[in-house]
Design a protein that fits this description.
Blueprint (H helix, E strand, L loop, with lengths): L10 E5 L16 H8 L8 E4 L4 E4 L1 H9 L4 E7 L3 H14 L6 H14 L5 H8 L3 H10 L9 E3 L5 E3 L3 H13 L5 H8 L3 H12 L32 H16 L1 H4 L2 H13 L3 H9 L6 H30 L9
Parallel strand pairs: 2-4
Antiparallel strand pairs: 1-4, 2-3, 5-6
Length: 332
């Protein structure tokens, strides 16, 4: 995979003047203020990633310029062995998800370039690399014109090729979800050949009594609607039992070296921190949403909640497979 083991590449020293900063995904160039901020850092900065074949900096242009500003002649680097296309993909993925993020214009331009270089990639696959939503990638693909090949199948994030028109697979997934109401998303996806995200959409449609296919008619027969879980008890003064338990869990995760000392772990902690708001803070935030934006924010919140729910289900399944006891500790 183009980004496999990028964090575990060996570190070596390289002369700064030998490195190139061409072909950056940043349309407007580097941020001078960010360069000055990095130049003032006392602690060592992470090594930069360089494409070995071209000596082009993939990730760390700001760090390179900060080192040059401080008068350094050499810098720690990790050499990436791959094609030029893979190097650009890694540059986009790294700069879209950590450090000084790419602007929306940068990510849109990167998505268009990836669509042209990898027309067989699904919208979700490209979205995962650019930090855009799959809908935005799909819109960019449609606006790109006839120059982009229109393929019958695309490769998803799991590496599997799936047909662009997946109506039949959606129908199979819907039938399986109706006859196996307790099936997990992974089971539905495995039986139908769909991605987890599409399997989730199909299951939600079936639970609402809608057709599993886009624009289809609802099927006949009874619809299984699982009972909604009872909401967790909350204390209005302290943010509730759930908020307290979440804070305890976050504290334990932040102390775990396998989480706090890895890039993906720190990214996870930032995501959890952003969502770990007490009940009163959520109420204040909701109250300040302009009425004309309420429906859009609600839709976005539901999509985020569904993604977190799917991630939790996958993690619980992994935990069960590891401990073999069939019981997982979850936050109430």
């Amino acid at each position: 995979m183009w980004n496999a083991q990028a964090d575990s590449l060996p570190v070596t020293r390289a002369p700064i003047e030998s490195l190139s900063t061409d072909d950056s995904p940043r349309i407007s160039g580097e941020n001078e203020e960010h360069v000055r901020h990095l130049a003032q850092c006392v602690s060592p900065l992470p090594p930069i990633i360089v494409h070995r074949a071209t000596l082009r900096v993939i990730d760390g242009v700001h760090r390179l310029r900060a080192a040059r500003l401080n008068g350094q002649t050499h810098i720690d680097v990790q050499y990436f062995d791959g094609t030029a296309k893979d190097a650009f993909l890694l540059a986009v993925e790294r700069n879209a998800h950590h450090g000084l993020p790419l602007t929306r214009a940068d990510r849109n331009a990167a998505a268009l370039r990836i669509i042209r270089s990898h027309p067989d990639w699904s919208d979700r696959m490209i979205a995962s690399a650019t930090g855009l939503s799959p809908k935005t990638v799909g819109s960019i693909r449609r606006r790109s014109g006839d120059a982009i090949p229109q393929l019958n199948a695309r490769i998803g994030r799991d590496g599997r090729s799936r047909p662009v028109d997946n109506s039949e697979r959606r129908r199979l997934a819907g039938e399986y979800a109706r006859t196996h109401p307790q099936a997990t998303l992974r089971e539905i996806a495995r039986e139908s050949g769909l991605s987890l995200a599409t399997a989730r959409d199909v299951r939600e449609r079936v639970q609402k009594g809608a057709s599993p296919t886009l624009g289809g008619r609802p099927p006949g027969g009874p619809v299984h609607r699982p009972a909604a879980p009872a909401p967790a008890a909350r204390n209005p003064d302290q943010g509730g039992v759930t908020a307290f338990a979440l804070a305890e869990t976050l504290l334990l995760l932040k102390r775990d070296p396998s989480i706090r000392l890895t890039e993906h772990g720190r990214f996870l902690l930032r995501l959890l921190d952003a969502h770990a708001l007490a009940n009163r803070r959520w109420e204040e935030l909701v109250d300040r949403i302009p009425p004309h934006c309420a429906a859009k924010v609600a839709a976005a919140a539901r999509e985020c909640a569904a993604s977190w729910r799917d991630a939790a289900q996958q993690l619980e399944e992994r935990a069960r497979a590891v401990d073999g006891r069939g019981a997982v500790n979850t936050i109430a």
